[in-house]
Amino acid sequence: ADALIFGTPTYMGAASAAFKAFQEATSTAVMSKGYRWKDKLAAGFTNSGAHAGDKLSTLIQLALFAAQHGMHWVNLDL
Q1: Which tens digits make up the pLDDT trace of 17-48?
Q2: Predicted confidence (pLDDT) at residue 1 exceeds the cutoff of 90
Q3: Residue 60: how many CB atoms within 10 A of its CB?
Q4: Can you say how many angstroms the Cα of residue 10 is from the centroid of all Cα atoms in its chain?
């Protein structure tokens, strides 16, 4: 794939535990020099049950995760 889009619910102002487990499972690739996702495009989305669910903090977490893998974050052109 040329791009990956990450999605996760926001719980308590952060990504879900399942997504965090996914992030941790990829940490071996981050620590090695052979990034599998290096220079690929990345984007992400989230949703929460509350209007003030701190979705921005989750999106920042997704963008940082992509950066750790050497990916290029694509934003909406709003």
Answers
A1: 999 999 999 988 777 766 788 899 999 999 99
A2: no
A3: 12
A4: 12
Structure-block tokens of residue 58: 């989750």
Q: Which tokens sit at 30?
A: 């981050």
pLDDT at 33: 67
pLDDT score at 46: 95
pTM of the full structure:
0.87
Which pair of tokens denotes residue 70? 């050497």
* Side-by-side strand order, sheet with 14-15: 14-15, 3-11, 41-47, 72-73
- Helix or strand or coil: residue 12? coil
Helix (H, G, I), strand (E, B), or coil: what is residue 43? strand
The residues, any chain, with a CB within 8 Å of residue 10's CB and separated by 6 or more, are 16, 46, 47, 48, 53, 54, 55, 57, 58
